[in-house]
């Protein structure tokens, strides 16, 4: 029965909208919804009502008044239940602040309300009614009431009788709730309002399908769909599609659907848990009774009215009949009181200035407009301004990527203009005939100033070159013996004659002898040749370029990285290096040869490729760079050298990191590191194996005219280089570990550029780190989640490196330019090239970086460049044409893969795009086995694999018929594939989405300063659903209902996901989410995974996400889907709300919704002093360094912290933590890291962090350091150090080794058994190596396991080197055998072999 049919069938009296004018629990109404059974109940609840004072609950039998008192906002001070010891023991655990007594003491105070049942109160009239004055709410048994009774003198009795089904129940009972109030406090309202019919449920909504149900022969003939009445069957049972008759509880037989019966139907009595659910017993109460072993006691609640009747009756009676009633919160009249949660606790180790407080508004300063391109006429010396290119000057153009592009010197001149007095410049500019005095940026700098600038550059370059030479002499003299240094500085080698210096007697010989002694000294012999090359290359450079290339000026690098800068980092070799000597094929055409010759001649001239011993070659090829240039790539895979190297994983920045330092109106610029890979030295061991066959590209007579500038004779650097083979001495593109090594050195330079963050002259200065996290009181969605704040309140300038592309940011154009200038100056100081030709001026609309374009003019948005947008549009149209080009509709597989690759690249900017790529994925993989016609995977029974292990070796035992399927190699991909039906729909949708001429924009952060974040938490329980929407200072808007019959066949995943998606679509129609940041909270992991992945193996779930992404784009909102534990849903009251109950969690008057969502709290904040104590218990530091607990301010100054790192951040701060960890782990791989993070917001960090973690395991919610009320488990990640070891060939990481995998499995299984042992202690005997009384609990057991892991990891040579250096500690020796051994003292002979395979 759909909503419209049910609505029309109801009598008019049951649909009355005459409600109490000021209900304590908000306003309710029923609205239609297509997927619901009988409408949706909607309401609003104030976030914070005034507390109503203490109350007393009396009872002759168990009652549900406790939850109702909580709901109304009372504090339960006393509970009087003389005859219910089991009930008192369970409820006292749920309400620890309530005193449970047999008899009320004389000094019980003055309660504001007494909740009771009729039998627990003295009869009328007695002396009791003369001694009390507070109102009484009384629950009556079924068919009982005060009707006909005379109230005590001075008292008024008002009763309200409610059918259970009227208020959403599933029984046919009618119950009465009465209010006794003093006549003086009576409001005088004689008539009570008629309540509106709420969505009712049936017996089937509370049935447990896992219960054993005896079958019946056939389907009941009278089964006709859900109905609001009792369905009596001929066999004496009642149908589950109707209501439950109360008089026959609990013996009533119920006929229900049964999956275990052939007929599909069964008949049985209801269990106590099912009866309590039908009686609307709160989930927390049900769980408490079941855990205490008193499940049968749940049926004792049925003596008194169900919870829904008690709540509705109490709310109406108190609101209407008590003078003054309950005051409903009105946001326009007064703000809600701040809760104790409003003052967020400081982060661990944070000082007063580092505590997460409400972030102040940051106002961007107005910056001058960007400068235009200035073209100079060589003839007349006049300057002409191309106004059409004013905006293009500040963006990196494709032509700037070419190596021969011109340096845009006007950018520096325009920034120089900002430093001179305005009147000096305006006097010159007024000579222009069209000078308007408004925009000086479009006019050239005065010729005199340009001439002076050039003179300053010449002088500055001279001083810089001289300082390079002098700094080396100062450094090397500090390394030499003082006696030798003193002799060379005090000897009088020359004398002054009055006209000139002359050698003294034997002065020249002494100088030569002393200098030779310096050259040959052991401390300096390895430095002379590298230093000589550094000085020569520095001497040959100009102000703008390094004409002869560069070499790191190693003596200026940090002391512990000088060897890396001088000789290159060591390579992690895994096996014997190859000897590949196959000759290089010549270029195919003369034009190609000329391009290749220019590239290779440049690196050969700069000695990047030099003569030397060659044992192996690699081949080269080239790819297009920019529009006319090429990029040389060297194939290290074909030669086999890449197979012999291990390259550690490292993370690259994403656009989300840059947004951390940006707000609307902020500036960005572009800078580039020139020759990113050849800047840095190749390791000495790999140079002989990095040979290049230069026979076809040696300089000949025909090449001289093509040289820049043209040559008339053979260049000097070509003389003497007669060998056919030469070798690389720098990092070369195509080598597996070149990106890791080059980015590692670039990040060290970046850290040096950051300098002292307290220096006010430092453009990267910052004063404090502020946390502005979702879930935190005072969260401002217009500000970054984590940001560095300057003393003036602006966000600090920052710099982000994506390989060689730099992106400086700043709150003004000047600050952004100074940040770029400081980093580029530091690069020059260290001997790293700054590609000045690729520099751009600060702007609010920069070009692409890391695949995306971020604009800050007016709002903070992301988009792709116009060129990539047009390319994507062309590919979509090409895809549409390909599907119609052939009669058989087949399309080329290879071309589809190319289109998909670029589409995935574009989808990094547009998060609404991945769902539309699913058809492309399905088509490309449709040829694989196990696929249906529509491309989706066919469901197959899972194979049973048995993994056996013996002495460190493993093998797999499978069933014979499954073996072929598990090990068979699929055939290669075909040339043509048939499009799946979904691809046609996706292409049509993509054509519509990419129909605009200009790129679409993706909102990165709301910009309305008045906006607040919205939180939507929803759940579906069985056939019921519910959700609650709230903002920090607005009432909760909740809704609850029951799904219709047509939804019964859908999966539980679909019902839960449909609930939230449909609610968001309804909110869109109401205009409540436009431009907002919305956090969608669910306990369905499939919803979160599908949202961020963009698709699911279920077609219906994928379509739901498609609807959600379309909504996000239409509304311009920012949606985050967050998975939480199911127990948190129960605690928050959303699980109960999905059943129609309003008695728990945030529905209660005393609870703020944000208190149930600890996104902004770290594990240490939630369980103070326990997490770190547990970690310290197994990370002992008797002989090594202790773990340093990092505060938020420490995240941005890791270069100053030498200790191993302990990260315990809030989940919402993890993107910034991951960014900082990536840089820290890359620049300091010798340091270990331990992460402890609750399993929340995992889409932001878990996948990336697990790539670097050696050991990952979770701690469930039951140990003392992480109790059950935490709900989500803890994720523990351990990153062991990595250090080069000479003459060692791996493995280099603990990750993936036998001991690491074994430890992860032991911890996962062990924690599970410890948790199960609380109910059955015999489970502990299944624990590997368990000896009774060896461990008192999981804390000691996990400590022992982790100590064994550290012991085994310490034997891995890369980790052992760090042990020697004191970075890790060795666990203390233990007399007990390992827990995995079978006997107490027997030697484990497999231990050594396992460690060798670590």
Task: Describe this entry's structure for a reader.
Helix content is about 30%, strand content about 15%. Residues about 1-20, about 325-395, about 940-970 and about 1365-1398 have low confidence and may be disordered. With about 1400 residues, it is of the alpha+beta class. The strands form 14 sheets. Strands 1-2-39-38-37-40-41 form a seven-stranded mixed β-sheet. A seven-stranded mixed β-sheet has the order 5-4-3-6-7-9-8, covered by helices on one side.
What's this, in brief?
The chain has 36 helices and 46 strands.
* Main sheet properties: 7 strands, mixed
Spatial strand sequence of the major β-sheet: 1-2-39-38-37-40-41
Mean pLDDT reading? 82
Supply the helix-strand structural class.
Answer: alpha+beta
Tell me, what's the shape? elongated
Number of DSSP-assigned strands: 46
Low-confidence stretches: 1-22, 327-394, 941-971, 1365-1398
Helix content bin: 25-40%
What proportion strand? 15-25%
What is the rounded distance between the termini? 63 Å
Gyration radius from CA atoms, angstroms: 38 Å
Q: How many helices does DSSP assign?
A: 36
């Amino acid at each position: 029965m759909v909503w419209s049919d049910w609505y029309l069938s109801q009598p008019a009296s049951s649909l009355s909208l005459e409600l109490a004018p000021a209900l304590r629990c908000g306003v309710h109404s029923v609205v239609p919804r297509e997927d619901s059974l009988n409408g949706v109940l909607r309401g609003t609840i104030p976030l914070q009502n005034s507390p109503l004072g203490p109350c007393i609950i009396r009872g002759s039998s168990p009652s549900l008044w406790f939850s109702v008192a909580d709901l109304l906002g009372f504090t339960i001070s006393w509970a009087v239940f003389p005859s219910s010891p089991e009930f008192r023991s369970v409820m006292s655990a749920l309400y620890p602040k309530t005193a449970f007594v047999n008899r009320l003491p004389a000094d019980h105070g003055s309660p504001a309300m007494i909740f009771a049942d009729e039998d627990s109160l003295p009869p009328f009239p007695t002396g009791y009614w003369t001694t009390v004055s507070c109102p009484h709410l009384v629950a009556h048994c079924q068919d009982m009431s005060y009707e006909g009774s005379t109230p005590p003198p001075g008292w008024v009795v008002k009763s309200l009788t409610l059918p259970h089904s009227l208020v959403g129940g599933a029984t046919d009972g009618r119950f009465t709730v009465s209010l006794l109030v003093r006549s003086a406090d009576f409001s005088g309202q004689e008539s009570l309002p008629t309540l509106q019919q709420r969505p009712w449920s049936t017996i089937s909504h509370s049935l447990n399908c896992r219960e054993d149900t005896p079958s019946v022969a056939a389907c009941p003939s009278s089964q006709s769909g859900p109905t609001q009445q009792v369905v009596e069957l001929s066999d004496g049972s009642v149908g589950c599609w109707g209501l439950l008759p109360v008089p026959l509880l609990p013996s009533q037989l119920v006929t229900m659907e049964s999956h275990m019966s052939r007929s599909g139907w069964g008949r049985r009595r209801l269990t106590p848990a099912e009866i309590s659910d039908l009686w609307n017993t709160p989930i927390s109460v049900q769980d408490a009774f079941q855990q205490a072993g008193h499940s049968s006691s749940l049926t004792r609640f049925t003596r008194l009215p169900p919870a829904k009747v008690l709540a509705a009756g109490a709310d109406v009676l108190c609101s209407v009949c008590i003078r003054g009633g309950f005051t409903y919160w009105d946001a326009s009249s007064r703000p809600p009181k701040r809760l104790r949660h409003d003052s967020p606790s400081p982060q661990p180790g944070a000082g007063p200035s580092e505590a997460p407080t409400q972030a102040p508004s940051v106002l961007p300063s107005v910056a001058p407009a960007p400068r235009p391109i200035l073209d100079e006429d060589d003839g007349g010396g006049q300057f002409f301004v191309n106004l059409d290119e004013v905006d293009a000057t500040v963006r990196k153009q494709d032509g700037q990527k070419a190596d021969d592009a011109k340096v845009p010197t006007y950018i520096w001149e325009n920034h120089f203009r900002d430093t001179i007095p305005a009147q000096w410049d305006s006097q010159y500019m007024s000579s222009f005939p069209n000078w308007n005095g408004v925009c000086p940026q479009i006019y050239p700098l005065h010729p005199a100033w340009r001439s002076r600038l050039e003179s300053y550059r010449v002088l500055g370059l001279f001083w810089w070159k001289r300082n390079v030479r002098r700094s080396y002499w100062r450094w090397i003299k500090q390394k030499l013996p003082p006696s030798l240094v003193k002799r060379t500085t005090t000897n009088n080698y020359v004398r002054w004659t009055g006209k000139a210096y002359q050698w003294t007697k034997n002065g020249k010989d002494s100088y030569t002898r002393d200098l030779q002694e310096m050259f040959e000294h052991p401390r300096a012999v390895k430095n002379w040749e590298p230093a000589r090359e550094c000085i020569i290359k520095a001497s040959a450079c100009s102000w703008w370029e390094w004409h002869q290339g560069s070499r790191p000026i190693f003596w200026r690098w940090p002391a512990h990285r000088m060897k890396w800068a001088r000789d290159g980092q060591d390579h992690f070799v895994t096996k014997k290096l190859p000897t590949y000597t196959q000759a290089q094929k010549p270029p195919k055409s003369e034009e190609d040869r000329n391009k290749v010759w220019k590239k290779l001649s440049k690196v050969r001239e700069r000695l990047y490729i030099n003569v030397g011993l060659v044992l192996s070659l690699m081949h080269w090829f080239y790819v297009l760079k920019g529009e006319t240039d090429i990029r040389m790539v060297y194939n290290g895979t074909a030669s086999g050298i890449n197979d012999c190297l291990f390259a550690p994983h490292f993370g690259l920045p994403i656009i989300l990191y840059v947004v951390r330092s940006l707000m609307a109106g902020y500036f960005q610029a572009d800078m580039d590191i020139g020759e990113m890979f050849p800047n840095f030295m190749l390791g000495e061991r790999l140079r002989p194996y990095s040979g290049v066959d230069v026979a076809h590209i040696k300089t000949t007579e025909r090449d001289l005219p093509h040289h820049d500038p043209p040559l008339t004779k053979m260049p000097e650097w070509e003389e003497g280089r007669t060998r056919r083979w030469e070798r690389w001495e720098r990092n070369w593109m195509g080598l597996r570990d070149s990106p890791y090594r080059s980015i590692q050195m670039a990040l060290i330079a970046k850290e040096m550029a950051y300098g002292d963050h307290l220096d006010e002259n430092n453009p990267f200065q910052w004063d404090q780190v502020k946390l502005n996290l979702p879930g935190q009181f005072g969260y401002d969605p217009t500000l970054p989640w984590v940001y560095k704040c300057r003393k003036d309140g602006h966000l600090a300038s920052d710099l982000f490196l994506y390989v060689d592309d730099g992106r400086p940011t700043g709150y003004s154009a000047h600050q952004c330019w100074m940040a770029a200038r400081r980093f580029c100056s530091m690069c020059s100081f260290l001997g790293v090239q700054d590609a000045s030709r690729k520099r751009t001026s600060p702007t609010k609309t920069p070009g692409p970086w890391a695949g995306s374009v971020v604009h800050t003019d007016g709002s903070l948005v992301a988009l792709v460049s116009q060129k990539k947008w047009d390319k994507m549009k062309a590919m979509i149209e090409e895809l549409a044409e390909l599907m119609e080009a052939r009669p058989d509709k087949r399309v080329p597989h290879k071309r589809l893969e190319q289109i998909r690759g670029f589409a995935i690249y574009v989808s990094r900017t547009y998060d609404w795009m991945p769902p539309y790529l699913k058809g492309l994925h399905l088509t490309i993989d449709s040829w694989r086995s196990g696929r249906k016609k529509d491309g989706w995977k066919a469901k197959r029974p899972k194979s049973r694999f048995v993994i056996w292990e013996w002495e460190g070796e493993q093998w797999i035992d499978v069933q014979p018929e499954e073996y072929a399927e598990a090990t068979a190699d699929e055939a290669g991909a075909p040339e043509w594939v048939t499009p799946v039906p979904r691809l046609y729909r996706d292409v049509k949708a993509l054509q519509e989405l990419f129909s605009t001429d200009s790129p679409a924009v993706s909102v990165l952060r709301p910009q309305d300063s008045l906006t607040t974040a919205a939180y939507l938490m929803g759940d579906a329980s069985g056939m019921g659903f519910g959700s609650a929407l709230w903002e920090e200072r607005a009432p909760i808007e909740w809704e609850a209902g029951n799904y219709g019959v047509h939804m019964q066949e859908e999966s539980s995943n679909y019902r839960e996901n449909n609930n939230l998606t449909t609610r968001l679509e309804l909110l869109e129609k109401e205009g409540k989410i436009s431009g907002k940041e919305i956090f969608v909270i669910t306990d369905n992991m499939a919803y979160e995974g599908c949202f961020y992945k963009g698709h699911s193996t279920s077609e219906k779930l994928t379509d739901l996400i498609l609807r959600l992404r379309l909504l996000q784009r239409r509304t311009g909102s920012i949606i985050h889907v967050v998975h939480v534990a199911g127990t948190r849903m129960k605690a928050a009251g959303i699980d109960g709300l999905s059943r129609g109950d309003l008695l728990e969690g945030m529905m209660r008057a005393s609870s703020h919704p944000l208190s149930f969502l600890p996104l902004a709290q770290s594990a240490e904040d939630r369980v103070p002093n326990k997490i770190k104590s547990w970690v310290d218990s197994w990370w002992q530091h008797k002989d090594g360094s202790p773990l340093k607990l990092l505060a938020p301010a420490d995240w941005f100054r890791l270069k100053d912290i030498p200790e191993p790192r302990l990260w315990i951040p809030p989940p919402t701060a993890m993107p910034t933590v991951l960014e900082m960890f990536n840089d820290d782990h890359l620049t300091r791989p010798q340091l270990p890291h331990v992460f402890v993070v609750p399993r929340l917001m995992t889409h932001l960090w878990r996948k990336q962090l697990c790539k670097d973690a050696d050991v990952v395991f979770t701690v469930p919610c039951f140990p003392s350091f992480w109790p059950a009320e935490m709900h989500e488990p803890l994720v523990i990640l351990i990153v062991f150090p990595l250090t080069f070891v000479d003459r060692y060939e791996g493995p280099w990481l603990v990750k993936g080794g036998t001991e690491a995998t074994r430890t992860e499995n032991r911890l996962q299984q062990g924690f599970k058994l410890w948790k199960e042992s609380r109910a059955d202690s015999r489970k502990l005997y299944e624990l590997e190596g368990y000896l009774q009384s060896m461990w008192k609990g999981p804390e000691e057991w996990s400590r022992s396991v982790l100590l064994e892991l550290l012991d085994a990891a310490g034997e891995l040579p890369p980790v052992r080197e760090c042990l020697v250096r004191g970075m890790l500690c060795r666990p203390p020796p233990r007399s007990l055998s390992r827990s995995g051994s079978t006997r107490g003292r027997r030697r484990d002979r497999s231990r050594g072999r396992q460690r060798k395979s670590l």
